[in-house]
Amino acid sequence: MGTQLMLAGLEQGNCGEAWNLTHPERVLAIQRRYAEAGSDCILTNTFGASRIMLHRHANEGQTVAINRAGVEIVRQAFDGKPGYIIGDIGPFGGLLEPYGDFSEAVVREAFQEQAQALVDGGADAILIETQTSLEELLLGLEAARQAGANCVIGSMAYDVTLDGSTFRTMMGVDPERAARFMEEHGADIVALNCGTGMDMERARQAVVRYKQATALPVMVQPNAGQPKLVNMKVVYDETPEQMVRGVRPLLEAGANLIGACCGSTPEHIRAFRAAMDAYENQTL
Ligand SMILES: [Zn+2]
To answer: pLDDT tens digits for 193-216?
Structure first.
């Protein structure tokens, strides 16, 4: 979504979530392209729409309105076709005490407010994504549960280690620990998204490790390759043709939901959709 908002004219550092209220037609145009590309699930444009994140842009007074509008825009994008609205909650953007300045109570309250607005607006599921610490993940999972979400998804961002031998989150969490933790704390789906060095093959390895640790469904959203700096802009250059080669191995490893994160486009999703349909038809 961030990549698409930039293409639609959002400037680096500005508040893309506020566009749900100020430029809903532009957000809708993006979401429609995903619906047309064959997405069954579309994330709301609310990654940074917790009160704490919105405060950076002095938009915290519109927290509820921004989240509810994000749900409504996805509903319009599906235009009556069957599809799931995934209410998206990203990190609150800081560190919890004792490492940082944010008390658990403040973050809990912010996640609860956002999750409630998304559920009240009609989100089918709540996604707590790009998480690196189990403490913050837990606050998000509990907020989603308390809001009455029908489905709660926990999604971790892993980084490949310097020696390339494995991957874990910035806060040192590995996939097995994350999966067991999520299952213990009431998640319905365990997921990964974004991260560093996490290409389709690494995502496949994570699926295998998740499946060994939990019987819950698994969702993956890798980035479209690694970020490169070109003309002072961050670009992701893995094409749909390159990325789609990883879809079948992901399905064979047992992935239940497949999407993509930074740098991906509706064309990536269109390619994924075709590969997933082909796989399904072949294995029926
Ligand atoms: Zn990403």
So the answer is: 999 999 999 999 999 999 999 999
* Integer Rg of the chain from CA: 18
DSSP string, 231-242: TTEEEE---HHH
Q: Sort 280 into a burial class: Cβ within 10 Å, 0-12 / 13-18 / 19+.
A: exposed
CA 282–ligand 1 middle distance (angstroms): 31
| Distance from residue 179's CA to the centre of ligand 1 (Å) | 20
164 alpha carbon – ligand 1 mean position (Å) = 20
Per-residue burial over 29-56, b if 16 or more Cβ lie within 10 Å, else e, is ebbbbbbebbbebbbbbbbbbbbbbbee
Using the mean position of ligand 1's atoms as its centre, give its distance from the Cα of residue 223 in Å. 5
Environment of ion ligand 1 (residues, CB < 5 A): 194, 223, 261-262
How many other CB atoms are found less than 10 A from the CB of residue 231? Answer: 5
Query: What does the pLDDT read at residue 126?
Result: 98
CA 283 to centroid of ligand 1, rounded, Å:
31
The model scores a pTM over 0.90: yes
**Residue at 194: amino acid letter:** C
Residue type, 195: G
- Exposed, middle or buried by CB within 10 Å (0-12, 13-18, 19+), for 106? middle
Residue 284 CA to ligand 1 center (angstroms) comes to 32
